[in-house]
Amino acid sequence: xxxxxxxxxxxxxxxxxxxxxxxxxxxxxxxxxxxxxxxxxxxxxxxxxxxxxxxxxxxxxxxxxxxxxxxxxxxx
Length: 76
Known about the structure:
This protein is mainly α. The protein has helices spanning 15-29, 33-46, 50-74.
């Protein structure tokens, strides 16, 4: 199967994809997940790809929200 992706196409992820990206980063990188998403957001921003930059910023925001929720539940 060949990919039909083109660099000029809109790549805005849907909420399910953002959730999957956040869960994958958390599973692989733990507490560093938000910082890694921020890195990708900044990288794509510097490259002029606002859509991907925005998507990765959303992933970082979701990871941080989930970290706050886990801290609240655990009492820390």
